[in-house]
Amino acid sequence: MLGDESQVILWMKRSARYFPFIEEQVRKAGLPSDLKYVAVAESSLIPTAYSRAGASGLWQFIR
């Protein structure tokens, strides 16, 4: 998927929207700002992402 330029462009557009919020939250928690890339890997920065395992959201957490 990394070779798909259209996907990378979508990630870049979404990152402009979501990274400022994510960076603020991880900074407040005293965590490394690079954690924002976990959300890219887990959900492609789609906040409504939902997996077959029941994980949801940007971070794909399971309750």
Can you walk me through this structure?
This protein is mainly α and 63 residues long. The chain has one domain. The chain has two helices and no strands. It has helices spanning 5-28, 36-43. The longest helix has 24 residues, at 5-28. The protein is flat, with a radius of gyration of 12 Å. The model has no long low-confidence stretch (mean pLDDT 90).
Beta content comes to: under 5%
Please provide the count of β strands. Answer: 0
Overall spatial form: flat
**Secondary structure category:** mainly alpha
User: What is the N-to-C order of secondary-structure elements (H for helix, E for strand)?
Assistant: HH
Radius of gyration: 12 Å
Give the helix tally. Answer: 2
**Count of individual domains:** 1
Helix content: 40-55%
The biggest beta sheet reads: none
Average pLDDT, all residues: 90
Terminal CA distance: 28 Å
Brief synopsis:
This protein is mostly helical.
Topology (elements, then pairings):
Layout: H1 5-28, H2 36-43
Key terms for this structure?
single chain; 63 residues; mainly alpha; flat
